[in-house]
Amino acid sequence: MSDLRHDPIQRRWVIIAAERGQRPSEFKLAPEEKKGGFCPFCYGNEHTTPPEIFALRQEGARDTSGWGVRVVPNKFPALRIEGGLNRTGVGLYDRMNGIGAHEVVIESPSHTDCFPDFAADHIDRILSVYQARLNDLNGDQRFRYLLVFKNHGSIAGASLTHPHTQIIATPITPRTVAVELQSMKDHYMFKERCLVCDIIAQELDAGVRVVSATEDFVVIAPYASRFPFELFIAPRRHAHDFLTCEGGMRQGLAATLKDTFTRLRASLNDPPYNFVFHIAPSIGNQPHRPGYWQTLAYDFHWHIEIIPRLTKMAGFEWGTGFYINPTSPEEAAKYLREVEI
Description:
alpha+beta, HIT family, subunit A, ten-stranded antiparallel beta sheet, three-stranded mixed beta sheet, globular
């Protein structure tokens, strides 16, 4: 029989359709063919991208040479950085100019290597670049939220094969984040505890949906997973701000990401996926409504979502907001735990 489950963070219901009977091993896909031809992100083609914003280079490297991680503006940005917001009303509607930022983090000079291939030290450097760009963009008073996300594979929305991450700054707090903020705040106001900390403690105690756990991070298949092999990564100890993840803790996150993506590759033949950082909003740039951000440091808990693109949304999902997941998170977690890597 199908199982209806509720996600307390996003306040949505999910149908775990066990009777559809798709076992984890049935989701193995043929690996996507790596496209050849010209790539603007490859070493030596730096002149073909928009002007560089930031880079990590080998000591002594000059100009565009010797880089390990490089950041450039998106050539076709969703939001543009020039101009003012010009908030206006249009009858019952609201509008503003499409102001924001849209950057591309080129993760490596290699056209084919990605997170399972990188050394943990290199992933740590990539994470440090995310933080450097977030710190810089946080200084712009027009921006209220900064989103770090990755599209891996054409099915997941990647237009270029070369491994890269994107950062978009928006002048509003996205609805998904707003729901999380409210859910976490309501839980804290009622129980004086962090909702995500409570979830982590319960999942570690149960064990059945835990993929891996280290001293600093835990990887969970969420109780109300929307998709097969959906994963949730979070610090085991309370932390509301990704920017405070430094030193040994950031290195621990790098090792956790390498292990997790290696498990996904070994289990599912390098599936297309999206991953998204859910981080705290830019507090200094928000209107200060009375009491609105007073508990943010206590109630918000930053985390990462990984969503393998193994199923498609259809009419029922679009019409209801429900998701139908044909594989239970318990089965998915067990499969990932036991895979040989």
